[in-house]
Fold this protein.
Amino acid sequence: MNSTPTHIPVLLTECLDILAPALERSNAVYVDGTLGLGGHTEAVLRRFPTVTAIGVDRDTEALAHAGARLAEFGDRFRGVHTTYDKIPFALAESGFHAADGILLDLGVSSMQLDQADRGFAYAQDAPLDMRMNQTTGVTAADILATYSEHDLIRIFRTYGEEKLAPRYARAILAARAEAPIERSGRLVEILNDATPYALRNSGHPAKRVFQALRIEVNEELDILRDAIVSALDSLAVGGRLAVLSYHSLEDRVVKTEFAARTSSRAPVGLPVEPASMKAEFRLLFNGARTASAEEIGYNSRAASVKFRAIERVEASQ
Ligand SMILES: C[S@@+](CC[C@H](N)C(=O)[O-])C[C@H]1O[C@@H](n2cnc3c(N)ncnc32)[C@H](O)[C@@H]1O
């Protein structure tokens, strides 16, 4: 385990401010669905002295680091090893049935990116693992060894929005016929060789393919859809959910689920909206907020963030 991993929490003040009306209620319950190194959670525990925080992460190393960092808060912090679509389970484990505030700060942590041996970073040669939960599931190397050309094209296009998907998939099939593709350095080489000269200066050729593999390995978008639904279902009336996403595919999932839950469920044209069909949620602001130039200046991770937040206004029917 890396002894001093670091991760600067993104939009920290904005997250705390938007959750404040919910977390200032007495004995409020906060769920951090993406605990990571516990940066957001530590700030919540300090600012809201009666809050109990439940920290969820699928990565046991992140949980261990955050657990040590938050030990001073004793019983006010509880870590749960699971995925963030299991928020109701994490709450029940700790004896609660609803949350007042929930945060989802999506994607990989700086610690995961910095750990060369986990294979997330195309800039460092390492085994192609990419599992956030290293105790189970297929690795990126497994996908490169077993997926058909058609499936590789599908994931590079869908999760990487990669225009050269067919070209890269063909290059991978040709390379794996000679030897298994097991290291990130080898994959970068294959992608570089398959990129036409004219396109070699338009960003790193491996960036979108690595993103696509990471999303596929960790089933990120499917889990995210379920996570937003389970987080919304877990909120008490007046409870708030804040989500930080880092690429357009994630943000689209969040935006779509928020739009569905903030719309009236009454059929169009009904003269009076029945109370049971009123929207259960309201958006706390329109659109997605981004980070300031100042924050991006000291934390490059903030450059792509999209921040959305929602509040439960009606009990679930
Ligand atoms: C960006 S980091 C969170 C950083 C944290 N906010 C902080 O300030 O330290 C995202 C974390 O979410 C975790 N994660 C990603 N997908 C997950 C999932 N489906 N379920 C639970 N945790 C997940 C990752 O393992 C990672 O530790």
User: Anything to note?
Assistant: Strands lie at 29-32, 52-57, 77-81, 99-105, 235-245, 281-283, 306-312.
